[in-house]
UniProtKB/TrEMBL annotation:
<dbReference type="GO" id="GO:0005096">
    <property type="term" value="F:GTPase activator activity"/>
</dbReference>
<dbReference type="InterPro" id="IPR027038">
    <property type="entry name" value="RanGap"/>
</dbReference>
<dbReference type="GO" id="GO:0005634">
    <property type="term" value="C:nucleus"/>
</dbReference>
<protein>
    <recommendedName>
        <fullName>Cyclic nucleotide-binding domain protein</fullName>
    </recommendedName>
</protein>
<dbReference type="InterPro" id="IPR032675">
    <property type="entry name" value="LRR_dom_sf"/>
</dbReference>
<dbReference type="GO" id="GO:0006913">
    <property type="term" value="P:nucleocytoplasmic transport"/>
</dbReference>
<dbReference type="GO" id="GO:0048471">
    <property type="term" value="C:perinuclear region of cytoplasm"/>
</dbReference>
<dbReference type="GO" id="GO:0031267">
    <property type="term" value="F:small GTPase binding"/>
</dbReference>
<dbReference type="GO" id="GO:0005829">
    <property type="term" value="C:cytosol"/>
</dbReference>
């Protein structure tokens, strides 16, 4: 049983604690105006926590750059017993050099089963993503991985590196991957998904590809990889503003229809160009997900008319295990006069509790 969490948000108090006795540690210095000096002080104490099994290290918005990240990585390398590691370095200007140093040190933590790296807005490009990929590929015991690269610039090449790393992570059951606004485009999506398809034990996947211009080809390639994840039961897919048209929706539907163990689905395709045919094909796919009991569907600002909404309704009526439904379909081409009638149709679906509804 994991011991009680020891929490610190003061450098001096942490430094004066029984460092070697810490097993389960949370250190919170978010928004603390740390420079390199403070990062070194923190690292000096962390390096002595040699018996840690679980570490949560929160250092968002401190601007200590690559040198600070390198120093922190060196200290964590001493904690070789770690099984559960959370590091949050959002908005720290870590850059490729800092990521490379951090990753080369973290390799020493070879017993990790749960890893969470929050690296939002850190000037990371393809080179930094490659270093991350090399490190992750060596974490062969990982069961849960959460990687947040929100608003970096890894591009297609960086996505390829991450895809290669996932091929070595066959034990992963839960994956959270945030690549919002990373310029990966369709080729990057394809390369990323080639690795994702090898995660045969994956049961929970949350992936954000918003604003990456992956297009029809990218979303179709993603759907093919999902079809290979036969144990997938919980899927959250965000692909907002990705230039996805009808063919992309059809490709996605094809993959989803093969996810026979899916029970919970969140699908966000806001601000694309999906029309009536596209939403109809998605509806048909939901019917084939015979275990699906919870669906949250976002299709705001597409090209869907009353006809497409009615087709979706007909399909959902045949999802016999569906019990929870949330629909967000406003800013399409639905006639204003039809909105209330359509809403009532969905509210009258048998067995289904409509949690939220917006046309």
């Amino acid at each position: 049983m994991m011991q009680q969490i020891q929490f610190f948000d003061n450098l001096a108090t942490f430094a004066g604690s029984s460092l070697q006795n810490h097993i389960n540690l949370s250190v919170d210095f978010n928004y603390s105006s740390f420079q390199v000096k403070e990062a070194i002080q923190l690292s000096s104490s962390l390096a002595k926590c040699i018996n840690l099994l679980k570490l949560e290290l929160l250092l968002d918005n401190n601007k200590f750059g690559s040198q600070g990240a390198s120093t922190i990585g060196n200290s964590i390398a001493n904690c070789s017993k770690l099984q559960d590691l959370i590091i949050s370095l959002k908005d720290n200007y870590v850059g490729n050099e800092g990521i490379a140093s951090l990753c080369s040190s973290l390799v020493a933590c070879n017993q990790l089963s749960n890893l969470k790296l929050e690296l939002k807005s850190n000037l990371i490009s393809a080179k930094g993503a490659s270093e991350l990929g090399i490190f992750i590929a060596k974490c062969t015991n990982l069961q849960q991985l959460n990687l947040d690269l929100f608003a970096n610039k890894i591009g297609a090449e960086g996505a390829q590196s991450l895809g290669f790393s996932l091929k070595n992570c066959s034990k992963i059951t839960k994956l959270d991957l945030n690549l919002y606004n990373n310029f990966i485009q369709s080729e990057g999506a394809k390369q990323l998904c080639s690795g994702l398809a090898q995660c045969n034990n994956l049961s929970t996947l949350r992936i954000c590809l918003d604003n990456n211009k992956i297009g029809d080809q990218g979303i179709s390639d993603l759907s093919l990889s999902l079809a290979n994840c036969t144990n997938l039961s919980n899927l959250s897919l965000n692909a907002i503003k990705n230039q996805i048209l009808t063919n992309g929706a059809i490709g996605l539907a094809s993959g989803l229809s093969k996810c026979s163990n899916l029970t919970v689905l969140l699908l966000n395709l806001d601000i694309n160009e999906i029309d009536d045919e596209g939403i109809s094909e998605l509806g048909f796919a939901f019917v084939k997900c015979i275990k699906l009991h919870s669906l949250r569907l976002y299709l705001l600002n597409n090209e869907i008319s009353d006809k497409g909404i009615l087709s979706l309704h007909s399909s959902l009526a045949n999802c016999f295990n569906l019990s929870e439904l949330s629909l967000f379909l406003s800013k399409n081409k639905v006639k204003q006069a039809s909105s209330r009638e359509l809403r009532n149709k969905f509210l009258k679906l048998k067995r289904i509790v409509v949690k939220a509804y917006d046309i």
